[in-house]
Amino acid sequence: MKVTINGGHYPGLDSGAVGITTGLQEAVVTRELMQSVAGYLRAVGYTVLEVQENNLSQITSASNAFGAELFVSIHCNAAASTEAKGTETYCYQWGSSGARLARCIQKQIIDNLGTVDRGIKTANFHVLRETECPAVLVETAFLSNPEDEQLLAETAKRDEFARAIARGVTDYVAQS
Ligand SMILES: [Zn+2]
Questions:
Q1: Domain carrying residue 93
Q2: In CATH, what number is assigned to the domain containing residue 62?
Q3: CA of 42 to the centre of ligand 1 (A)
Q4: Which end of the chain has fewer CB atoms < 10 Å from its terminal CB, N or C?
Q5: How does pLDDT run along the chain (176 residues), one tens digit per residue?
Q6: How far apart are CA 94 and CA 168, in angstroms?
């Protein structure tokens, strides 16, 4: 099974969201999560492309050239209100394989991290639209919320996010 794992944003060029309490940068969190998820999937025999680029077209081109069968983009959320928190996972359209993959990953994160379940959503994001395989974008938790930020800042909890995302992928593959 060939899977692309994309860490959202790019350290040094595009920090993405910034943690409200510690200044933790989304691009740094997603790089670590990408590497961890890739490691867990390689451990069960998957071939994994890790890609983190500032240019979205480079991400999707690399994934398509790799021949990915699944694509997972990892992000952290932010909102104007510090109250907003929880996990949501995006797919391109309802009824698709991507929607099933999104449900598998969302369920693992909610069950294992206990974050607020904000559900599955659809979006016309470049990385969902231009990938030639089932694709999802996971918003793990909110860096603009102090409790969620704490989860992403703690090494053990961050690792639990990575394990949950990897298990979501393997759950999807087992069901398909
Ligand atoms: Zn992001």
A1: 2-175
A2: 3.40.630.40
A3: 24
A4: C
A5: 999 999 999 999 999 999 999 999 999 999 999 999 999 999 999 999 999 999 999 999 999 999 999 999 999 999 999 999 999 999 999 999 999 999 999 999 999 999 999 999 999 999 999 999 999 999 999 999 999 999 999 999 999 999 999 999 999 999 98
A6: 18
